[in-house]
Each structure stands twice: as C-alpha cells, then as structure tokens.
Amino acid sequence: MIRTLLNSIVLCISLTGLSQDIEVNSYVSKNEVKVNEIFTFEITYSPSCTPSNPNLGGLQVMRQPFRTSGTQILNNNGKVTKKVEYKVTYQIRAIKEGSYTIAPVVFNCNNKSYKTKPITINAVKSSGQNSNLPTNSDFFVRMHASKNLVYQGEPFTVTLKMYSKNQPQNLENVEFGESKGIWRKDLNPKQTTFNSSYEVINGIRYFTTTIRTELCYAQTNGNLTIERAAISAIFRRGFFQSYRREAKSNNIKIKVKPLPRNAPKNFNGLVGQFKLEHDISKTTLNPGEAIDFKIKITGKGNLNAFDDPQLNIPNDFEQFDPEVKPKLNYKSSGIEGSIAYNYVLVPTFYGDYNIPAYSFSYFDLETKTYQSLSTGDLDIEVLKTDGSIAKSQDVTSKKDVNLQNEDIRFILNSDDTLFLYSDFLIVKPLYFGLLCCPFLILGGIYFIRKRNGTSSQKMLRAKKTLNKRTQQLINEAEGHHQSGNDKLALETLNSCFKVFTQDKLQLSTSEMTLSQINDLLNSKEFDEQSISKFNRVWETLDLFQYAPVTAEKVGELIKDTRIIITTLNQKL
Amino acid sequence: MIMRTILILFSTCLISQSTFGQNSLAKGDSAYAEQNYELAIQHYTTLLGENYNSANLYYNLGNAYYKTNEIGESIWAYQKAKKINANHKDIDFNLNFVSNLTKDKIEQSKTGLGHWFSKIAFGKSINFWAWLGLLFSLLTATFIYLSRAAILNSFKSLYLLTSLICLILMVTTITIGIIQYRHITTINHGIVINPVVKVFTAPNHDDQVSFELHEGAKFKLIKTKEDWVNIELNKNEGWVKKMDILLY
To answer: Distances in Å between the alpha carbon of B36 and those of A423, B24, B26, B33?
Structure first.
C-alpha cells in the first residue's frame, strides 16, 4: 500500500513554473480530507509576480486569505541561496464528499504569464477511514535508483531523500538497509550539510533533504534488493518544544543481467572501458641492477574489482611487493581514474629472460563485447659479469628451487603390457609339468643307464668266470703233466681249450671245425703266426688220441695254449 | 615335445595381450593428454571390464579420476596399481598426494610383508619368478647329474651342494610368484567413494550408526554379506553398503 502511495506521489510531483528567479507555486496542506475539515491552500510567488484569484472548484473559503512574506535560505550543492517569496494562505473546507479540483492559478510576472498545476482534493466522510491516506504523509523517506535493470558490474546510483512538511531541526539517526551482492560507496562521505529544496507532491509542498547518494555495482546477477533505510529526525514545535519523527524508506529491487558467457579466461568481472599502459626502465642490464616495471590501468568502470596483476616473473629475478598508486574518483557515472603499479625486479643471474605478457579482459558496456588488453611479452637481457669472483658469487648465490604448483604426476606410457590373471604361468598346470621336466629327464637317463649296465656286467662276469676257469684247468693240466700223467693232462687241456675257443668265438658245436675257426680268426684280423700257433695246438690236441705225445711236447703245448688264450683274450 | 610345451607357454604369456587392449589403453592415454578425462575414464574402465589389468592402467585411471575430482575412486585405482607394482615412485607419489586430500585420519597398518621382502618380491613380475623357478629346476637337475657323473669326490660334493642351493632357490622363486599372485588377486581392503558414508553397527539401515567415513578413507575388509560389507578401521568395526565403496 505504501509502495502504491509512493508511486502515486512520484507521478504527481507538481512541477511548478520556474524561470530563473521567478518561482510560483500552489499547494494544499492535505489532499485527502474529511468533510468539513479545515485545511489550507497556499500560493507562493516571487515579489515580481501578481496572482489572479484562484478558482477553488467548489471548496468553501472559511476566512479571508492573508498574505505574508518571508525569506528562505536553501543549500544547493554547497551553494547557499537566499530567496524572498510572498505567500497567500486560504483556509478552506469541503462541504460534501467527492473530488474537487483547484484550477491552476495564473500569475503575471513582468508581463509574462505563469501558472501553477491544478490540485485534486478528495473529500471523504468524516466517519470513514481512507486507506490511501498515509499515516505520516507529512514526513517520509524515499529511496530511488537511477537504473532498475543493469548488467553485472554496471554502475548505478541510489539516492535516499527525506520529505517533510516542516524543515527538520536536526537529523538524529540514519540506518541503511542491507544489500547482498551489491557494492555501495557513498559519493559524498564527508558531507556535513545536506542538499535541501522544496518539492510539491500531489499539491502538498515538502521540504526535501538528500541524505545520501551512493554509487552501486551489482556483483552477482539475478534479482537483488536494497533493503529499507530508516531515518529519525527532530522537528521544532513552537519555540521551545521539539519532537522526533521516524520513517522507513521503500526498498529497491534491481534486476541484474549476467554478462555474456563467452568470457575470456583472464576476465575477472571488470566492466567499463579501460586502457593498459606499461613501461620498463631497461631491458639490458647487469645482474644485481634493478628494473622498474610499471603497469597502469586507466579507465572508467568498476575499478574496485580490479585484482593486482600477477606477473610470471622468472625465478632468477628477485621481486618486491609492487608500489601501488590508486587515483580513483567516485562519481555517479562510475569509478574513474587509474591504478598504477611499480614493480622492482632485480635479476640475480645472467641470461636471456622473458617476462610473459600480463593481460586482462573487461566487458565493454558500449559495444557489449569482451575486450582484452595485454602488455605483450618483454625480453630482458642480463649480461654476464666479467668482474671479480666474489661479486659473481655474491650475485649468483645459490637459490632454493621453489615449488610453485604441486599436482599429481602425469600418466605413464601404455607400453606396459596388459595381462589377465589367467596369463600367469604360476596358475597353469602346464608350468608345473615343465618344472618337473628336468628331473624326469634325469631320472630317465639313470633308468636307461641302469638297465644297460646289468647286461654288460653279466657279460663281463661271464668273461671273467671263463678266464678264471680256463686258467684253473690249464694249471690243473700242468699239475698232471708234472706228476707224469700226460694223458690226463692232455685231456684236461683239450677240453678247456675247446670250451674256451667255443665260448670266446661264440660258436655252436657244429661250427667247431678248424677251417671255420681259421676263417673267423682271419676276419678278426689275427696275424698269421698266431693263427698257425692256434692250428698247431688244435691239431696236436686232436692227434694225441691216436698217437702218443712226448713229455716235452706236452710242456710246450701247455705253454702255447697259455699264449693263445692270452692273445684271444686281448683281441676279443 | 618339451620344445612345443615351452613354445605354448611363451605364446600364452607373451601373445595373449590383444591389440584391442593396447589400442584402448592408447586411446585412453590420448584422451587424458587432451584433458578429456571423462573419455579417458571410459576407455580405461572398458579395459577393466574385459578383465585386463596392469599397474599403468590403474595408475592412469587414478589420474583421470583425480582430474575429475573423484578422490575416492582415484585412491582406489592407485591402490590397485600399487598392488601390481609396489615399487613405482610415481604411483607412490600420486597416492600420497591424493591421500592428503582426504578428511579421515587412518592409522597405517603394516601389511605383514617386510619392506625389504616386498621390495624384492614385488619388484619383478610374477612371470619373471616363474621363469626363474624353471631355470633353477633345470640347474638343479644338471648339478645332480654332474655330481653323479663326477669321478673326484670333492667335485661330487661341490656339485651336490650347488644342486641343493638351486633346489632351494627354485622353491623360493616359485613361492614368491605364488605369494605375489595371491597378493594381487586377493581382495582385502577397500576405499570409500561417496562424500560421507555412515558405518552401521549391523548390516541394517535401522541399526545405529557406529561412525562416519569420508571419501577416500581406507579400511580393511572382514567379510561381505549380500549388499553389505563388514569393515575394520582404526580397530573399529562396522558395516557399510557395497555401493559406497570400492574393494581392492
């Protein structure tokens, strides 16, 4: 309701005819009255004007109007003006309920005609309550925003104005409402006197005081609200008495449009128009010398949101905190001015260095686009000093390698082989089979060797037994020979020789003929002498059955037999 | 026959990795390099779905998870990678780095295997130990043969001693391989992957909350029961829902 009323007040501000020093006005003490309630209608005008009789539109004049004159002292932006005005006061009332219109009053000022605005009066029944009637319409506070639809970061102003029928004696207390997401700055923080003037609203003249004008920037988008402000003021009643009035202002809704989405990476909310200047004192120098690197941002916009430049200075440069010189003017159109940074850089090591460009972006409200500004890359050549060792040591003293950003390590190459759990040899039965293979092979070798080993040993044993038996029989024959029993000796010798030959040459009984034995001995490459010796022994042993053999010959025979057996043993 | 068996073993352990797997891994790596971490995760997890494993695969997956701010999954992947390759500095570094971002303070418990042992045993692949075991079995058999064939008694005992050492080494290497295999394939730990997880006193939502864990907290697995997992952490026990955790 209050809001509707305030809006109606805004629309009904009566703009009076103003011309240089001439000012004419008409106003009433109330525009919502009860029937038969006496109220005043006043006209004020400059001394050079003559008013015509007003047409009161059916309102009854209770008393003859009376004229007074007075002097007003007003403060306008620190300029104090003195104004003389005449005032004619009518005491009037409405007899019936309804709407009355007081026609414009015409003035003749230096032969020129001026007129005031018509005033409408609503008269209601004396018993009825009119809801439109403001409870303290003789004192209220209004907050007004220069814009209700802004971009995030676009400047706008909020003015807090106090309206009172009487001039307040003093301002006691002012409380400003909260405003989330809005940066606010009092444009005149040191003011001690306030701008004051008269304003006629709906035919009622008010004394107005501008309490505060703020420069505002919306920091977020969406619907933001500046909450109501509260004011209390002291008024004078009579000469000695004073009283206190309190009032709360309206709140203000601001719709904040977000900035376009395609913001560059180096954009951090700067809106307006800016310039970037930079200057470097020198680009070729010796280690230990200082460089002044200046960056200056000039422009108009929300410079309060400007972050100090973060320069990527090479590690071999000592750098100090920059000297910052802000020169900012807070105006109703925004923040104007500049911020200058002076960086002092001292290279500690020779070499060619590069200071990467410092850049930032801002949103240009005129072109509605993002603009980017950059210093450009700067190349610095630090010369190699050829002076003393001490100096070079001093200059190139060891420096810690500072970890600037820590992050996880990068991924590993994909040359690592992927595997399945079933790929592991350790889980394959085949693997364990293979593991046993060497032992199985070893076992096999021994098994085969053992089997082969038994047959050859048998042969060896048989050979040994044969030799042993043969030797025994020869020895026996020799014994018989020495005891004179040559016949028995020869029989023994014959049987042992034949058995040995058959066994040694592995012949069957039918094969035991001399010719066959000779062929065999020839094939086994026995020499002729041995063969003839064998034949002689063979034949002699065959012969003794038919013819007697002498004792000497028996001894010789035994000897030859021994030699032949040895020869056969050696060759076979 | 033996040669054929060896060839079969070679073919199974060397050629079994399909080109599909390697391609997918390479695709994941290139997606990661292009900072398309979601796509990289997709490629890596496809490989896991095909039952492929490798330390690098899990490590890279851990990196991709970290980059998408999935701390819990990231730690899980690094732990999996560490299980396969215990001595990789990058895995250790990243696991340590990401673990520092977690909220819960977990008491470190020794896994039972000494540091030196794990360094030796897990420094090489399972198949490396398997092949080494095979080599030692061959050497054992050879030295037994030599000890039997030697004429001189001193050589006989030298060869016998060597064969005994080889036999011990054979058993040791195969045991290491089996331990490593069991270490990789046995699931006995887990990581919390949701921001805040309630640990209940029993596998039931109606029961009391024992304590709360935050993303990335590491715990010991005791047993599982349907959708619930019995866990132990800092000598406290409790039950968590399976969907809140990843086991490794």
So the answer is: 32, 15, 14, 7
Check the CA dihedral B19-B22-B23-B24 and report its sign: positive
How close B55 comes to chain A (CA, Å)? 8
The predicted structure's pLDDT at residue B20: 63
Closest A-chain CA to B146: A442
Report the DSSP beta bridge partners of residue B235: none
Nearest to A426 among B16, B33, B178 (CB): B178
Closest to B53 (Cβ–Cβ): which among A412, A418, A441? A418
pLDDT of A350 reads 78
- Please state which CATH class domain A268-395 belongs to: mainly beta
Let me know: does A487 contact A546? Beta carbons within 8 Å: no
Do A305 and A274 contact (CB within 8 A), yes or no? no
Report DSSP state, residue A419.
B
Q: Which helix (H) or strand (E) holds A560?
A: helix A551-571
Burial grade of B4 (CB within 10 A; 0-12, 13-18, 19 or more): exposed
Q: B173 or B16: whose pLDDT is higher?
A: B173
CA-derived radius of gyration, chain B = 23
CA distance A161 to A411: 65
CATH architecture group of domain A2-142+160-211: Sandwich (2.60)
Contact B80, B58 (CB under 8 A): yes
Domain ranges for chain A:
2-142+160-211, 268-395, 424-454, 463-571
How far is CA A36 from each of CA A56, A123, A132, B117, B218, rounded to the nearest angstrom?
15, 9, 19, 110, 88
In chain B, where are the structural domains located? 18-99, 117-185, 189-247
B6 neighbourhood in chain A, CB within 8 Å: 434
**For residue A526, is pLDDT > 80?**
yes
The beta-carbon contacts of A257-261 under 8 Å, at least 24 apart in sequence, are A257/A149, A257/A150, A257/A151, A257/A152, A257/A221, A258/A151, A258/A152, A258/A221, A259/A151, A259/A152, A259/A153, A259/A221, A259/A363, A260/A363, A260/A368, A260/A369, A260/A370
Q: What is the assigned CATH class of domain B18-99?
A: mainly alpha
Q: Looking at the complex, report in whole angstroms how far the Cα of residue A452 sits from the nearest Cα belonging to chain B.
A: 16
Angle at the Cα of A194 (from A193 to A200), degrees rounded to 5?
Answer: 145
pLDDT surpasses 60 at A164: yes
Backbone angles phi, psi at A510, to 5 degrees: -70, -25
**Residues A362, A371: Cα–Cα separation, whole Å:** 5
**8 A C-beta contact, residue A276 and residue A169:** no
Amino acid letter at A384? K
Strand partners, A112: A109
pTM of the model: 0.45
The span from the CA of A10 to the CA of A5, in Å, is 9
Backbone angles phi, psi at B24, to 5 degrees: -65, -40
Structure tokens at A29: 């003490």
Q: What is the ipTM of this complex?
A: 0.79
Residue type, B60: N
CB A359 within 8 A of CB A373: yes
Residues of B in contact with A438 (CB under 8 A): 137-138, 140-142
Q: What letter represents residue A505's amino acid?
A: L
Look at residue A35 and give its three-state secondary structure.
coil
Give pLDDT tens digits for A114-152. Answer: 888 888 888 887 653 333 434 446 788 888 898 888 888
